[in-house]
Amino acid sequence: MLIIGIAGGTGSGKTTVVSKIMSLFASGEVVLIPQDSYYKDSSHLPLEERQELNFDHPDSIDFKLLVHQLKELKAGRPVQQPVYSYLTCTRSRETVLIEPCHVIIVEGILILADMELRRQLDIKIFVDADADDRLGRVIFRDLKERGRSIEKVLERYEKTVKPMHLQFIEPTKRYADVIIPQGGHNQVAINMVCHTIQRVLHATPERTLRTV
Fold this sequence. Notes:
Shape: globular
Strand order of the largest sheet: 2-5-1-6-7
Radius of gyration: 17 Å
Order of helices and strands: EHEHHEEEHEHHEH
Number of domains: 1
Strand content: 15-25%
Helix content: 25-40%
CATH topology: Rossmann fold
Structural class: alpha/beta
CATH class: Alpha Beta
CATH superfamily: P-loop containing nucleotide triphosphate hydrolases
């Protein structure tokens, strides 16, 4: 089993990079584990307080559960992945069954910030992008997917996203084995990562890799 960690700032293009890497594999050969599924449950807080939570601080992530489930998958055992809603800022009672497979991609802004999680990653990737480009993607995403007003998005960016990026996310770049500048638009870097994965997995029997 190969576990790949893909980190980077909010709006850096991680999703695009993940999608392009996953397209290399046949269906069912690779599974994505998003950090966002492991936000701590906040159902005990009033809705107004939940909506002001700092999702960009390492303390908001249940790293202990994420690491435990990765170890279970490595041992060949399936896990029940949590389901988290940004609209209610709570965990659902439902879970998603994740089966062990050849390749696991763990994606999220803070996955390189936790030492024990880093130890579970065979390849660590940091997706980099210009701050203005990241802000534009954050505005578009939060308006469309999270029901926030433009005022709330900009306020959260100045008070939370930007300072947390500088304090907790940008410094984790030093742990990366590979840095992909220009976000998901850097096809050359993405191809290099894909070829590296191909070489690592070349010895795995009964595998059919698609052409990059």
